[in-house]
Amino acid sequence: VEEPATTFLDEPAAPEAYNPSEEPNLRPQQSIMEAMRKNTEEGTINISMEFFPPKTEAGERNLLARVDRMSKILFPLWVDVTCYGAVAADREKTLRVATDIMSYTGENVMMHITCLNLSRKAARDLLERTKASGIRNLLVLRGDPGARKFKPSPGGFRVAQELVAFIREHHGDWFSIGVAGNCSWAESQHVEGEQFSDDESPGSYLTSDLTSGPDVSCDDEPQDPNPVKARTGSGYLAGLRAKVQSGADFIVTQCLY
Fold first, then answer.
1. Does the annotation count 50 as an active-site position?
2. DSSP-based helix, strand, coil % in the chain, nearest 5
3. Which of 182, 228, 246, 247 has the largest CB neighbor count within 10 A?
């Protein structure tokens, strides 16, 4: 009887003794925009993988082994590390896991960063350490407070646009910055991709030029203590254009939430 073939979905062995500081992968990180341009010129399909930081050390070891194994089969353009939570210790965990994946696998890493409980002082510190780690790619989000209403940190950031502008102001073009978009004009209350109105046509979204037109700001929208609200199609595009004009390089979306 033949043994069944294993796949990258099978549970890999955890690298029990792995220590990133002792076993660094020195391949420099590449800007996602640069990598996408190169792949487009070569006709290569862009694939990425997204992971949530595990809660335990054993989980982190298993994640490193799994990412390494999958990367050797799928050859992702980048590996995405989502936010673990909304407090300082959670941001530290996200940065550590992102750095470990980069060091262990040598893959391009994109780290999520949100406005949740993020003061400008904390943002400066986090960005400096992220830059020092060698990570060059960020997905900048306002963040989802769950059932609570979003409340910016005192002196912090109200929307992703402000955080994008802050990163560009302090770090120039070092980081390749992605922002969130919603590819659906159907009803959605997702915090990073508000809905289009029922009378908004798909074509107006698909053909809109997000880099041209008058300067706009998310502040042009009616103020609401809870930004998780339905916008008109034009208002949604205004907010998306504002993020691009503030320095975003690319827009990441999903087929569904």
1. yes
2. 35, 10, 55
3. 246
